[in-house]
Amino acid sequence: MNSTKRTAIFPGSFDPFTIGHMSILEQAMPLFDEIIIAIGVNSAKKDFFPLDRRIQHITSLFTDTPKISVDTYTSLTIEYCKKRKAQFILRGLRNTTDFQFEKSIAQMNSKLLPEIETIFLVTPPEFGHVSSTIIRDLISYGTDVSEFIPGKI
Amino acid sequence: MNSTKRTAIFPGSFDPFTIGHMSILEQAMPLFDEIIIAIGVNSAKKDFFPLDRRIQHITSLFTDTPKISVDTYTSLTIEYCKKRKAQFILRGLRNTTDFQFEKSIAQMNSKLLPEIETIFLVTPPEFGHVSSTIIRDLISYGTDVSEFIPGKI
Amino acid sequence: MNSTKRTAIFPGSFDPFTIGHMSILEQAMPLFDEIIIAIGVNSAKKDFFPLDRRIQHITSLFTDTPKISVDTYTSLTIEYCKKRKAQFILRGLRNTTDFQFEKSIAQMNSKLLPEIETIFLVTPPEFGHVSSTIIRDLISYGTDVSEFIPGKI
Amino acid sequence: MNSTKRTAIFPGSFDPFTIGHMSILEQAMPLFDEIIIAIGVNSAKKDFFPLDRRIQHITSLFTDTPKISVDTYTSLTIEYCKKRKAQFILRGLRNTTDFQFEKSIAQMNSKLLPEIETIFLVTPPEFGHVSSTIIRDLISYGTDVSEFIPGKI
Amino acid sequence: MNSTKRTAIFPGSFDPFTIGHMSILEQAMPLFDEIIIAIGVNSAKKDFFPLDRRIQHITSLFTDTPKISVDTYTSLTIEYCKKRKAQFILRGLRNTTDFQFEKSIAQMNSKLLPEIETIFLVTPPEFGHVSSTIIRDLISYGTDVSEFIPGKI
Amino acid sequence: MNSTKRTAIFPGSFDPFTIGHMSILEQAMPLFDEIIIAIGVNSAKKDFFPLDRRIQHITSLFTDTPKISVDTYTSLTIEYCKKRKAQFILRGLRNTTDFQFEKSIAQMNSKLLPEIETIFLVTPPEFGHVSSTIIRDLISYGTDVSEFIPGKI
């Protein structure tokens, strides 16, 4: 129908990738022809799960989904978009704190590279309380968090 | 590239259609193959601009944009989506008040009709203060609001 | 253990009573010895469901729960608390809009009658999008909303 | 009247314990048979006041209140609740930032241990600006903060 | 010192004028040479207290304060500012709901008349829960609200 | 007209000073007789731009504006106000996150030193997404940020 391939970057640290992230991806599937899960690598930030393990985990979830691939990047997100010829950045929103933060980033990215558009999807209500930060905290206390993480990390 | 036509509904009362609405549409253009600006007609709500004038105004803005059409509907938004075979609802977000309200509606729509996804775009910062409500108020005091309305209503 | 009976008022218009209200009550059950679901009757506000039908619906849900009763009131909420010798007002919170509104009311009630305390519980994530307002809107369009209403209204 | 003892944990770092904390406790007194002020000890977080001094300070405030005791814990909060046979977690809310943060934690705790309920009370308006963070900052500049701290730390 | 007289409009419906309004005025006194309390008269909005009584009440509070006067206006606020040669609009902020609403109005006024600046002051914490809306509601139930209203209305 | 000089402190770390800060100052110019841009020096916080360079940058922007001066301070902000005989603290607000944070600080400062008033101005919509934090992040990735910084840093 349309001749332009629609490619989105789904950027994040995914430390770890949660059922919340999974849900946003499932909601976004019909919207894009290709989605690149892009793990931002920031040497100044301390990892909880090693990068290798995160790549392996996320990749294992989408082996049967040719539309979705996993990659890492170290540049500014919009630079990575340019490199990958992605016109869209995909982000999930859980609450007003998320929204306030994401709004400024999206507006700034639009000013710096007008051809990039940030697309927001709202997390389903039942996952609104799931965050990588809380999950890391639970793991550090030895809590079983498998119900919040798809597949096996 | 992809064989499925991506159709979005952009629902609202558009009383009147503003530069904020225009900006959301421009941002959404690359994302969809077809966008239907759907004016919700609610007999319980009192109009400021008559429906005919709103249809005429919005239609006049997109005569050279085949991808965009204008329609009216009286049913529930998701029922109208089904009727028009639209998989997506497009909404703009200006601030946390918008977000809080839109989030519940989007989550409810998802529960009622899971194949419909609501796509959110953030209004550019320079239009964050523009709302149909404030514009109606300004007009009622005789203020010139032409800078906030695209084309001529 | 303690000699004082702890009685809470759960005030609202419950037009209609939803699975969100039900969930707040279930969460509050261990906290109180008696909970009075108090339907505020406000002649200035137009009802959607007639008062009789709301009383009948809510009563039918708690016939086997001696701790919970249903009543109506027309006075200020804190006056009704005094009359019923209830020391607590129970309220559910879904989001920041709820919180902002409820906070001022609770603080005002505390100033007017310091022996009354408002107790807040957070709605479970999966019901965060359910509101009587949205449900009334859905019903007015003929949508089946039975999944959001406990029992049969 | 009721045969079950209602025990609440009031968790926090209380670094230092403020008039805001005191007010929440006073409001919560009629609601519970026992309240355990539980100082969370987190080796990863740097203390401002040494733990010993915080225990001593808080204990000194409640020597005549048999219902309230002071303890420390190093585990996940819900694990500590289980150990102490507490069914309730007590938290104070000052503003929407507090609420947003506390909501996710409470919902997560409910998922992990459904028999635990988090009870929220709103801080009285006159203490809405008091926070341990601001008080620590004031102390570090040599400001007299005795009006914001009950008793003597 | 400076040769320009600084005049502010303090617009509102003041239905009724509360201790919150009074506090904002006291905080603003050192900032301006003249403050005009401007009661907006909107024929579409139903009054609770008649206009005459509101004028009388507010005037009685400032008979010994030559800097403060009371007036009514029916035009757009910025038009009234022009007429009165006021460069500033004074507004109080209690919470994020106030802020979100006032922000858009202030930004719109700035676009329409750049020489007008809106000045915001934060209500003291102890009055954060006081609003004319809640007070009207209390009065309609026969509650004594004299502690929330300065002087005698 | 009035005999009292109105002096405001505009405190911040200004790391770096942005077009958002510039806009707040321009809006505040008619309100005050003197504005001191006060760079808070906090040994515990790591600078991005060295203090000298920030002083030089900001000073260079106001060489022709006698009303505005640049200074540094290491004490509590209200202590610095006392020392400089400033009655006002000037702050800009972009969004609800800013507001929530600033509100508590302003209320606390008012309690500690009642003769100091914090004056808030709202950032123009077109600069609502500009923050020193985002700009520092962009610079660290080698992005050209000159459009967000007035003059030359």
Quick summary:
Six copies of one chain form a homohexamer. Chain A has 153 residues and is of the alpha/beta class.
Secondary structure: elements and pairs:
Six copies of one chain form a homohexamer.
Chain A: E1 7-12, H1 19-28, E2 34-40, H2 51-61, E3 68-73, H3 77-84, E4 88-93, H4 96-112, E5 117-122, H5 132-140
Parallel strand pairs in A: 1-2, 1-4, 2-3, 4-5
Considering the chains and any ligands shown, give keywords for the structure:
homohexamer, 5 helices, 153 residues, five-stranded parallel β-sheet, Rossmann fold, alpha/beta
CATH superfamily assignment of chain A? HUPs
Identify the quaternary structure here: homohexamer
Largest interface, C-beta closer than 8 angstroms, per-chain residues: A-B, 30 and 30 residues
Radius of gyration of chain A: 15 Å
Number of domains of chain A: 1
CATH class of chain A: Alpha Beta
Order of helices and strands of chain A: EHEHEHEHEH
